[in-house]
Design a protein that fits this description.
This protein has about 120 residues and is an alpha+beta fold. The protein contains two helices and seven strands. The strands form two sheets. A five-stranded antiparallel sheet has the order 3-2-4-5-6. Strands 1-7 form a two-stranded antiparallel ribbon. A hairpin with a 2-residue loop joins strand 4 and strand 5. It is globular, with a radius of gyration of 13 Å. The relative contact order is 0.29.
Length: about 120
């Protein structure tokens, strides 16, 4: 991948207890390649930008609570279950993010980062 290319990445996780994280949760540095609704874990919509992903999550939140994520972690591609949650809601703009399906404290902060920035986050 080119160094200038931006991808949707897990920038941070709000749950501070890193020792409680596990491989089934979205982790810092994970690149979100796509999302799928409910049982459609084989039909992923590509994640092109954080703002577009947030809009897609908003659409999904009206229909289902559990979604699937296709994430790149290192050299592996994983399918993870997650839940859609509102992130700071104003009257003019609703934003959505994800949290781990297994732990409601594990809320993800998403960002548009370069591939190299995501790789650096995976190492921390």
């Amino acid at each position: 991948m080119g160094s200038d290319q931006r991808v949707v990445c897990v920038k941070k996780v709000k749950q501070k207890a890193a020792e409680e994280w596990d491989e089934s949760m979205p982790l810092p540095g994970d690149i979100i390649e796509g999302i799928a609704e409910g049982a459609a874990a084989n039909t992923f919509i590509p994640a092109k930008a954080r703002s577009v992903l947030s809009s897609q999550l908003g659409s999904f939140s009206r229909q289902t609570e559990v979604i699937w994520l296709k994430v790149r972690r290192g050299d592996s591609v994983l399918k993870l279950q997650a839940c859609v949650v509102k992130k700071g809601c104003s009257k003019l703009q609703r934003r959505f993010t994800i949290r781990a399906a297994s732990d409601e404290r594990h809320v993800v902060g998403l960002a548009d980062l370069t591939y190299e920035q995501c790789t650096a986050l995976q190492g921390t």
